[in-house]
Every structure is written in C-alpha cells, then in structure tokens.
Amino acid sequence: EYWQRIRAFRRDIRLFLITPALIGLTVFGGIYTVLFNLYLVRLGYGPEFVGLVNASSQFALALFALPASVVGARVGARKAMVAGLSLAVLGNGLPILAEFAPGAWRAGWILVTYVTGGLGLALYFVNSSPWVMSVTTPQERGHVFSVQAALWPLAGFVGSLVGGVMPTLFAQALGVSLDSPAAYRYPLLIAAGLLTIGVGALWMTQEAAITVSRDEPARPPLAVPLGILLVMGLVGILRGSGEGAARTFFNVYMDAEFGVSAARIGGFLAIGQLMSVPAALVTPLFATRWGNDRIILAGTIGLALVLAAFALAAQWLAAGAAFMAMLVVISIARPAYMVYSQEIVAPQWHGAMSAATTMAIGISWSIMALGGGYLIVRLGYRPLFLTGALLTALGALIFWRYFGA
Is-contact 82 202, C-beta < 8 A? Predict the structure, then answer.
C-alpha cells in the first residue's frame, strides 16, 4: 500500500518533486552548501562576514514570508513558486560574480545579491506546502511530504560528493591551488544554473485552487488561529536555532578547527544525507502508529541531544558523526512537522501557517548566523553549538506543554 500510493502520484506532483531534488543537489545540502562558505574564506573573509552573508539571506526569507503568502493568494501558488525559484537562480549565481567587482563594492554586491536568493526561496517555500495540500488527499499528502523530505538529502548526497571533488578538478584544469577562489567559482555557478531546470518543471504544472478535499470534512470559516500560529512560529524558531548554527558553520568549523579537506566535508554531508533518505520515507509509518505530534516532540529532543554531542566532540570524526546524526533526526521530524502544522489549521489558513513556519526558520537561522559569527570570534564554535542545543530543547518543552504530545 505504501509504494502503491507513491506510484500513484499524479503528473503535477512528480514534476513538483523535481524541484526539491534540485534544491538539495545545489543550494540546500549539496554543491552550494559545501563550497559557498569556503569560497568566501578564499576571498579573504572571516567568520563574521560569513555569518553576515548567511544571515542576510535567512533574514530576507523571514521578512518576506508573510508577503510571499499574500503573493501566492493573489497570483496563485504555482506562479509564486515559479517566480521564487527564478529569483533563487539569480540570488545564487550573482554573488559569485562579486570576485570581478572593485574591492570596495565586493562585500556589498555579495550581500545584496544573496538577499535576492532569500526572497526567492521565501516565495517557493511558503507557497509549496499550500499547493501540495490543495492537490492531495489527506491519505496521500503524508507520503508526498515524506518523499519531498527524502529527495532533499538524496540529491544532497550526490551534490555533496560532487561538490567536494569539483574544486580539485577545476584547480587542476585552471592551474591554480585550492586556496584560489577560482577553484570554487565555477562549481558554484554550475549549481545556480541547475536550478533553472526546476523553474521549467514548475512551469509545466497546473495551478490548483486551495479547496477542501472530498475525503476531508468541510469546516466553517474560522477566525485567525493566532495562538496556534504564534506557538508554532516560536517552536519553529527555537528548534531551528541549533540546526541553523550547525548547518551554517559546519564546513568552516571543520576546516578551521580540524583542518578537514573540502572533499572530506562533502563526504560527511553526503553520507549523512544518504542516511536521511530512508529516515524520511518511514515517517508516514511512524505517524500512523504514534502520530505526527509525538514524532515532532521526539525528533526535537533528539535534535537537542545530537547538537550537544556535536558541540562537545573533541575529534573530527566524532564531530562529523554527530552532524550526520543530526541530518537523520531532522529528516524524520521535518515531514511530520510540515503535515502537522498544515492540518491543525483550516484550509483557508494553510498559507498563513506556511508563512509562519517559514518565517520561523528564517528568523532562527539569521540570528544564529549573524550572532554566531561574532560569538565564534570571541568564544569559539562550541559555545555557539551548545546554545543552539539548549534553545532546541526549550522548543521541545514548549511544544509538549502546548500540544500535549
């Protein structure tokens, strides 16, 4: 029955699922994730600027989340996703051209253009969940979200391996060392260009009105579920803090503290994401037995524990193993979180809930990236990661107290 539901995905769902695969291959766990921060370091920037650049994109994601839901309501979720992924192509390609800008303009160019990518991802992410909810039945949507969550790390596995070896290949071809920005420039441009395939795939889908499925009982119009939106937003901010800190500074941390090569960093990301694929796919089975709320609670507690292990690791192999465990835990909890957050509100508030959860991710990641860069300079990496673990544990406590999971 499980595989029959997946094989029964309609054409539009299959086209849509191309986009998370490409995002995982390139900017969310793949080539860009492995190489972009290392590229900034090769340009001569330190942790403060690396944190600022990452924070700028996440802040744009948070700031534009609510307007993105309004745009989706006006023009349709599909058109909003197409526009968003198109902006993401520009926002991830243009920063790499800063290398050719005058020195005084370089930092500003990177920041401004990278913000464009954050705006684009806000349009895409905020409108993707309501669009999926509108074209699926309650019985199949858990499988769609799980496959989506599995495709990110699966494609990220490939992207991490490819991204780890590409600098060496380009360095040899160009006759430069691995300390040269040129070795990282072309892999990053290729990664941005691959996203255009996703734009075409989304364009081939059809717009779907957000309606109540025949399998789902109709509900009367409800007032804004402000309390639920605020609590889910707060929980999202807290549980995203540790993940944001670890994801933002993992490659720089492994490079600076342990002297780990780009290829080995890519290997950790690749193996962790490959392990995450079956973890995401079994989430619907866990949800049937225990419920999405309990999976979210257990996943958040588990995330806090592996983040603490990552922070306290004294050897590069232990740190890499803890980071891989974090990716697995996240892959189990993420589809449950996406389904649960959408199903606890009426269909007319799906866009608002998607905006709230997306904004939460942007806020938490931007704060940890920006503040983390300065905290690292003064106290080191471990206090940052421990802070993220404590905030994640607090998120688990609030979720348990409010929803009684």
Answer: yes
Provide the residue type at 226 as one letter. L
Asked whether the CA dihedral 82, 88, 90, 93 is positive or negative, the reply is negative
Q: Is 199 left (phi over 0), alpha (psi -120 to 50) or beta?
A: alpha
Tokens of 332: 């189990």
- Rounded to whole angstroms, the Cα distance separating 56 from 50 reads 10
Which residue is listed with tokens 């606890």? 344
Q: Residues 3-25: pLDDT tens digits?
A: 777 777 888 899 999 999 999 89
Structure tokens at 31: 């080539």
For the whole model, what pTM was predicted?
Answer: 0.75
Alpha-carbon span 85 to 81, nearest angstrom: 6
Which single residue is written with the structure tokens 């090769």?
42
pLDDT digits (tens, 9 = 90+) for 97-121: 888 877 778 889 999 999 998 899 9
Gap between the Cα atoms of 160 and 142, Å rounded: 27
Residues 6 or more apart from 359 whose CB is under 8 A from it? 61, 62, 65, 66, 233
Tell which phi-psi region holds residue 24, choosing left (phi > 0), alpha (psi between -120 and 50) or beta.
alpha
